Amino acid sequence: MKRIKIFFLDLIAAVKKVRAGKIKNFLKPVHGFRFNFRDMFRKKGTQKGVNSIVTAVLVFFLIIFVNYIASNHQLKKDFTSGKVNSLSDQSIKVLGKLEDKITFLAFASQVGEGQYFRSYMEKFRYYNKNIE
After folding, report:
1. Helices in the chain by DSSP H: which ranges?
2. DSSP code at position 99
3. 8 Å CB contact between 129 and 74
């Protein structure tokens, strides 16, 4: 504690001398005090802190990378027992062979039928981008 107090008192005195123009090189160590990065990184606390920061930054970028990949490559799986929410293999093959743009026009008589039709159109669009 005494050494730190002496350092700050000498630092204040050095600043006053620099302002007065008596010292040309202010970066010269005061009373043999040197800040050494090598000694600082040898301490366990510093090592753990730097390790924590590096780990947090790596995890952050890993999450961003996984999110980027997931947003560009959509994966849809149907885990129901009867595969109710997926198309049959034959329908997928037919959709894969279609090359022209296809537009569907639907008329729904009840409120829920339109949403049901839209869900099937999304399934079709997942396998073929030419469906409108």
Report:
1. 2-20, 37-41, 44-72, 89-97, 111-127
2. -
3. no
> What is the rounded end-to-end Cα distance, in angstroms, of the chain?
76
* Predicted structure pTM score: 0.41
Rounded Cα distance between 78 and 91, Å, is: 15
Residues 6+ apart with CB under 8 A from 26: 14, 15, 18
Residue 86, number of CB atoms within 10 A of its CB: 16
Length of the chain in terms of residues written: 132
Beta bridge partner(s), residue 102:
131
Tokens of 122: 């999304």
pLDDT per residue of the chain (132 residues) written in tens, 0 to 9: 566 666 667 777 777 776 666 655 555 555 555 666 677 777 778 788 889 999 999 999 999 999 988 887 777 777 788 777 777 888 888 888 888 888 888 887 877 777 878 887 888 888 888 887
The two structure tokens encoding residue 99: 């090359």
